[in-house]
Each structure stands twice: as C-alpha cells, then as structure tokens.
C-alpha cells in the first residue's frame, strides 16, 4: 500500500458522488455499493496514479489521498 484513500462520512454516503467517482477513477478504485454509497476497492488502491480527479470531483475536503511513504496529503 503506498497510498490510502480517505472519504468523509458525508462524501462516502453521497450517492451522486459515488456514481461520479466510479466513472472517473482511471484505475477503478471506487465502486457504488449495494446501498448506493462509495465503496473503496482495496485491491486496486495500489494502482492509484495520483491524478486527483477524485479530489476535484468531491466537495472540498471530501476525498483525500494520503501518501503513506511521506507526510503529503493530496486534498483541496
Ligand atoms: S487520484 Fe486518480 S487514480 Fe487515485 S483514486 Fe483518485 S481518481 Fe483514482
């Protein structure tokens, strides 16, 4: 694991955001779960290309990418 994807509870339960994230992530790290919430596909997290599309798609602070090998957090 070289990054961790963090979502606020509000972002995680946002059904519209869940659909958007599932569409935009180029390496399929997000899925829509049975209840319509955001599901992180853990086995794909290491494929993250740090494109920040998920961060831009979410409301400010909703999604963060935490680089586990440094102290850097990608967010807005
Ligand atoms: S930064 Fe890009 S590759 Fe990484 S989780 Fe977000 S959308 Fe997917």
The gist of it:
This protein has helices spanning 9-12, 15-24, 53-57, and strands spanning 3-7, 30-32, 38-40, 63-67, 73-74.
Question: Counting H and I runs of at least 4 residues, what is the number of helices?
Answer: 3
Q: What is the CATH architecture term?
A: 2-Layer Sandwich
User: What letter string, H or E per element, gives the SSE order?
Assistant: EHHEEHEE
Large-scale geometry:
globular
Write down the CATH topology: Alpha-Beta Plaits
Radius of gyration: 11 Å
Task: Give the biggest sheet.
Answer: 3 strands, antiparallel
Can you count the beta strands? 5
Specify the CATH class: Alpha Beta
Mean pLDDT: 97
Distinct ligands, ions and cofactors found in the model: iron/sulfur cluster
Keywords for this structure?
Alpha-Beta Plaits; 5 strands; 3-stranded antiparallel beta sheet; binds iron/sulfur cluster; two-stranded antiparallel ribbon; alpha+beta; 3 helices; 76 residues; single chain
Q: How would you describe this protein?
A:
The structure is a single chain. By secondary structure, this protein is an alpha+beta fold. The protein has a single domain, classed as Alpha-Beta Plaits (2-Layer Sandwich), CATH 3.30.70. The chain has helices at 9-12, 15-24, 53-57; strands spanning 3-7, 30-32, 38-40, 63-67, 73-74. The chain has a 3-stranded antiparallel β-sheet. The chain has a two-stranded antiparallel ribbon with strand order 2-3. The chain is globular and about 35 Å long. The site of iron/sulfur cluster has 14 residues, from helix 3.
């Amino acid at each position: 694991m070289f990054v961790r994807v963090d979502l606020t509870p509000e972002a995680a339960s946002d059904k519209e955001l869940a659909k958007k994230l599932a569409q935009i992530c180029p390496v399929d790290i997000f899925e829509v779960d049975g209840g319509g919430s955001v599901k992180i596909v853990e086995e794909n997290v290491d494929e993250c290309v740090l494109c920040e599309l998920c961060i831009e798609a979410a409301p400010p602070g909703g999604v963060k990418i935490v680089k586990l090998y440094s102290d850097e957090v990608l967010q807005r």
